[in-house]
Amino acid sequence: MQNPNSPPSHASPTLNPYKTLPFQPHFKPQKLQHMRNQVENNFSEFFEKWILQHEANLQQLLSVSKNPSNEQEQRVLISKVTTHYKEYYSAKWAAAKEDVLGFFSPPWLTPLENAYLWMTGWKPSLAFRLLDSVRYTGVPGSSLADMSGEQLKKIEDLRVKIKVEEEKVEREMERQQVAMADRRMVELAQLTSRVRDGVGEIDGLVEVALKGLLVGLERVMKMGDCVRLKTLKWVFEVLTPLQCVDFMAAASMLQIQLRKWGKNRDSQQGS
């Protein structure tokens, strides 16, 4: 898996929309659409298998949670579930090289799931709200209700730290969104609307410009994923093995149920 702390930092290429390029575009729109469909189909297939294993992991988490004395079993399961998450991000980053746009509106998720996405995934601060909810609602048998004062202080410090990390990602996303209206994009849009001859050359300019934008979106996606991975790592460092098991069980259950609610809603609207 790529280093989550070092997302690529490619600068957008300098573009003069009035320069004539001596080549035709590498990809035709039909080819780009075919490539995108192939990437989305492949990742959809991966995700369905991944979510099935996620459900199986949840059952194991719930089972191990009932045996609080076996710390070795807890650690083995934590490692297994963590590896499962890393496999998801590894596959995601590989697929995003071919089609990052698919992860900003993933067709393998329901509209309900998509509505709660933050930078192509779950919002990191959700982890702290989940911890609060499990503690305050008094989930029967949950070890999270027994967190020490020292643990709670560390979690609060992490909450603030992660909030700062989230804001960095949001500022980068804002920068990418505003870049859509910069001078070269406006000039290119005007040029494209006027040109009838030399369409191939204009397509080449558009392709170069869009590649720069997509590189920026890929950077935002990876920045968001890095914060998600750091959140899990840092929270796990504060919790005991049993508390990690209970936390992952609560997080997995929420994700799985949200997906089921989304599918049920879609089927009801379609009937």
Automatic annotation (TrEMBL):
From which residue to which does the signal peptide run?
none
Domain DOG1 residues, every copy: 40-268
Ranges of compositional bias, category Polar residues? 1-17
Gene Ontology terms describing biological process = DNA-templated transcription
List, alphabetically, the InterPro entries matched: Seed_Dev/Stress_Resp_Reg, TGA_domain
From the UniProt record, which GO molecular function terms apply? sequence-specific DNA binding
Q: A Pfam family for this UniProt protein?
A: DOG1
State the residue spans of region: Disordered: 1-20
Query: Which parts form a coiled-coil structure per UniProt?
Result: none
Question: Protein name, please?
Answer: DOG1 domain-containing protein
The lineage, from the top, is: Eukaryota, Viridiplantae, Streptophyta, Embryophyta, Tracheophyta
